[in-house]
Structure formats: structure tokens, C-alpha cells
Write a structure and sequence with these properties.
It contains two helices and four strands. Helices cover about 45% and strands about 15% of the residues. The chain has one domain.
Length: about 160
């Protein structure tokens, strides 16, 4: 009888140990998923910033050739300027697109890089960052909602 009682105690102890181990494993997996999702967001934001800087280079090249930036009196998606940009930079096969482009869950105004140049002598390029952590990234824009680059530095639209 003592032997049977000891077996039950060992079995209960083993089950408790396995339960604790399973809970720890589940918590570890949840933490890894959350961390991975944050890394994905930071990667997409870094790509957006890099894309804007590349587009800024293309726009400055356009200005050097034509002494004007492509006109856009109202904010447009940068890819809407593809014909004009490709006439200046023909080797640029694909214009950069926001990583969320085509994602139906994202607001349409934030699923593309916005461009504005009402006078052809200045412009603003902007992208909506997912993390909105502007303390780590310095832009020359005035909007809290968008990461902006411009030439010359002008106000927000």
C-alpha cells in the first residue's frame, strides 16, 4: 500500500512539473512572437525611411536636369509620377513602394509614399511610420503623423 501511494505522489509530481514546463514554454513562445512582430514593424519603418532618401536623390537629380521638381499641387502617391521619373532616370525600373502597399487593412493614404510640389521649386515626401517613434529618427518635417523629407526644408502639407 505504501508503494502505491508513493507511485501516485511521483505521478502527481511529474504531472505538475510537466504542466509548469508547458506554461513556461508557452510564455517563451508568446514573448518570441511579440518580439518578432516588433522587429517586422521596425524593419518596414527602416525601409520606408531608406526609400524616401533614395527618392530624394532621384528628385534632386531631376531638379539638376530641369531646374524644377515634378509638379503635384495636391498630395499624390510617388508611384503616380513614374513616367516623369523614368524619363529622367531610365535605369530605375521599379519605383519604391511602401511595404504596406496593396494591404487592404492599411488606410489608402498611408499605403503609399506621398509627394507634394505645388511650385516645382520645393517638395515634401512623406511616409507614415507604424511605430511613430520619431525620437530615434530625425526628419525635417513638421508633422507628428508622418516621417517627412523636403527640399528645401519647408512646412507640412
Amino acid at each position: 500500500m505504501a508503494r502505491s501511494s508513493r507511485k501516485k505522489q511521483l505521478l502527481v509530481f511529474t504531472n505538475v512539473r510537466m504542466s509548469v514546463l508547458a506554461i513556461v514554454f508557452v510564455l517563451f513562445c508568446l514573448g518570441a512572437v511579440v518580439h518578432f512582430q516588433n522587429q517586422e514593424i521596425e524593419t518596414r519603418d527602416a525601409r520606408r525611411i531608406n526609400d524616401l532618401k533614395q527618392m530624394q536623390t532621384v528628385l534632386n537629380y531631376h531638379y539638376q536636369l530641369y531646374k524644377t521638381y515634378p509638379l503635384a499641387e495636391a498630395p499624390v502617391c510617388f508611384e503616380d509620377l513614374s513616367a516623369e521619373i523614368r524619363s529622367v532616370v531610365p535605369w530605375l525600373v521599379v519605383l519604391p513602394q511602401d511595404p504596406s502597399h496593396g494591404n487592404s487593412a492599411v488606410q489608402p493614404r498611408q499605403a503609399c509614399y506621398n509627394y507634394l510640389s505645388p511650385d516645382g521649386q520645393s517638395y515634401i515626401l512623406r511616409a507614415a511610420l507604424e511605430k511613430n517613434n520619431f525620437s530615434m529618427v530625425h526628419d525635417n518635417g513638421s508633422s507628428e503623423e508622418w516621417f517627412e523629407v523636403s527640399a528645401p526644408a519647408i512646412g507640412s502639407f
